[in-house]
Design goal:
Chain lengths: ~220, ~350
């Protein structure tokens, strides 16, 4: 799961980035509107945290441009302007949720989890596939009730496949959603992560669909 | 000598007196020069008739000359009531400069209000991001083991946050409280908020029923109507089990907006308390607890009111009373008098 943070206050941006990284997400930061617009339009994100008062290009304009271009990733608007009139404008502009500054970090995390869950069509907060349960609330994975220790990249691969279980996820898509933008990607490592996950969760847990990608069965 | 009309009348009588004296002298000289001319043969009744007609026309012209002041008064009343933002219409050249100056004054006032609003907003909004940064620093301090420092920081920051929220809302209300030309459609506001709230409470699976008459308009600025309805509807959504309903009706010079939810309801003893500043029915519910207090203050500002009752749907019924905008009726009245 990969998230874009568009916030112009560097300190707040760092705090958000570190909290989201701790929660198991790959995080990109944009400190101005043009950069946010560019990243959102060219990279694949599972959610965006968007400050409305960005320099160079304001958040609402960016949001409208994304929605006009058919980009449907969930957007959590983060703003000091929290009157109801502004909220209506934000939601009508294509935002999915609204958090007013100053905010509790837990609230932002909880709302992001809910947005990502809804966007991938999941109903319950816990993701379950057979004996494996992934709880995004504490970034914890259990197998038959026993906690499985995963590295952050392994967790992201598993989390993405679990959110889209039942569907074949191409390796390129997986790569797009587990690395931050500045990270040196190497598509081989996805295979490495998959191999390690199979070792920890069972060899048949992640299925390879030759030529297409990976899949976790929806109901087992 | 108080009335403008009397002054003009006296002025024109004195003027006519002077004119009469000149004419009298001229006619005496005329008769001395041409005695027994045709003038002597004019019937006195005819002269009297012409005189009466001229006097009537003169008085009517004077009344007509003063009518722009009546119209100006009606237009000013329109501005005060919020039907119009500026003084419209064309006036005689003596009155037009006055109207222009009044319009300039109105524009200046609007601009000053907007600037003050902007400044207060910028100040409060500008402080929110630093407060957010410090709040997360407090979390870090806590994680580093300095619990008492973190607790004190959080307490103070929470107070700052509440002060910002409260005074920002009130500065906005006070600044926009001069409802020059304010009128808003209840239906537009209610529909936009219903859309927004359904999105914000998407997890709850609520249904929202908007039964608002399309031409119900209130003399309230749109931002403030949104703020009042937004807070009330948000509360209803927080407490509702599955349904929220908003309806409107006319009650004399007011519009009644009723918001019902089917939640657990509110103890009657709590109803007045939650309308007070910063009191919350449940400390665990999200929000700063100022929502209802802000609704009350905004309603007061516009000469309306807010009351909480028992809903027939099971939960709370909030009844918001706001002054009705009778713009269509007022327009037709004026149309007839012109």
């Amino acid at each position: 799961m990969r998230i874009l943070i568009a916030e112009d206050e560097p300190h707040l941006s760092r705090q958000l980035a570190s909290a989201l990284t701790d929660a198991g997400y790959a995080v990109d930061c944009a400190l101005d509107g043009e950069r946010a617009d560019f990243l959102g339009a060219t990279e694949s994100y599972d959610a965006v945290v968007l400050d409305l008062g960005l320099p160079k290009m304001d958040g609402l304009t960016i949001l409208r441009r994304w929605r006009d271009a058919g980009l449907s990733m969930p957007v959590l608007v983060l703003t000091a302007r929290d009157s109801w009139h502004e909220k209506v404008r934000g939601i009508d502009g294509g935002a999915d949720d609204y958090v007013a500054k100053p905010f509790q970090m837990e609230e932002v995390l909880a709302r992001l989890r809910a947005l990502i869950r809804r966007a991938s069509g999941q109903v319950s907060p816990e993701l379950r596939a057979g004996a494996v349960v992934l709880d995004p609330r504490n970034a914890r994975v259990t197998r038959d009730g026993v906690v499985v220790k995963l590295t952050s990249h392994e967790f992201r691969v598993l989390s993405y496949l679990m959110h889209h279980r039942g569907r074949v996820v191409p390796q390129s898509e997986l790569t797009e959603h587990i690395y931050a933008q500045d990270f040196d990607r190497d598509s081989n490592t996805v295979e490495v992560f998959i191999a390690r996950l199979r070792r920890k969760l069972g060899a048949s847990f992640i299925e390879t669909v030759r030529g297409l990608g990976y899949r976790i069965e929806a109901d087992r | 000598m108080k009335s403008f009309r009397t002054r003009l009348l006296i002025g024109s009588i004195i003027f006519a007196g002077g004119l009469l004296a000149v004419f009298h002298a001229a006619s005496l000289a005329f008769f001395r020069r041409y005695p027994y001319s045709f003038v002597m043969r004019i019937d006195h009744a005819h002269i009297l008739f012409v005189a009466v007609i001229l006097i009537i026309i003169g008085v009517a012209q004077m009344r007509r000359g003063l009518s722009p002041f009546d119209e100006l008064r009606a237009r000013l009343a329109g501005v005060r009531d919020g039907r119009e933002r500026r003084l419209e219409g064309r006036y005689p050249s003596e009155v037009q400069p006055l109207v222009n100056d009044l319009n300039a004054l109105l524009d200046h006032r609007d601009e000053a209000v907007r600037r003050a609003l902007g400044k207060a907003g910028d100040l409060a909004h500008g402080l929110k991001t630093p407060v957010a940064v410090l709040m997360h620093e407090a979390d870090r301090t806590d994680a580093a083991g300095q619990h008492d420092v973190a607790t004190e920081m959080r307490t103070q920051l929470d107070r700052m946050r509440r002060q910002l929220d409260y005074h920002l809302a009130h500065a906005r209300a006070a600044a926009s409280g001069a409802p020059l030309g304010a009128r808003s459609s209840v239906a537009e506001s209610a529909n936009a908020l219903a859309r927004t709230l359904l999105r914000l409470h998407a997890d709850r699976g609520l249904s929202m029923h908007v039964n608002v008459v399309t031409d119900h308009t209130v003399r309230v600025q749109r931002e403030d109507l949104d703020e009042m309805l937004g807070n009330l509807l948000d509360n209803a959504c927080k407490w509702a089990k599955s349904r929220v309903r908003i309806t409107s009706s006319i009650d004399g010079a007011n519009i009644l907006i009723t918001i019902d939810d089917d939640g657990a309801g509110l103890d009657p003893t709590m109803r007045d308390a939650v309308l007070q500043r910063g009191v919350r029915a449940d400390e665990a519910a999200p929000g700063s607890g100022f929502g209802l207090a802000i609704v009350r203050d905004l309603a007061d500002l516009y000469g309306g009111s807010i009351a909480l009752e028992q809903s027939d749907a099971g939960g709370v019924r909030a009844v918001l009373r706001l002054p009705r905008n009778r713009v269509s009726q007022a327009d037709s009245d004026r149309g007839m008098s012109l």
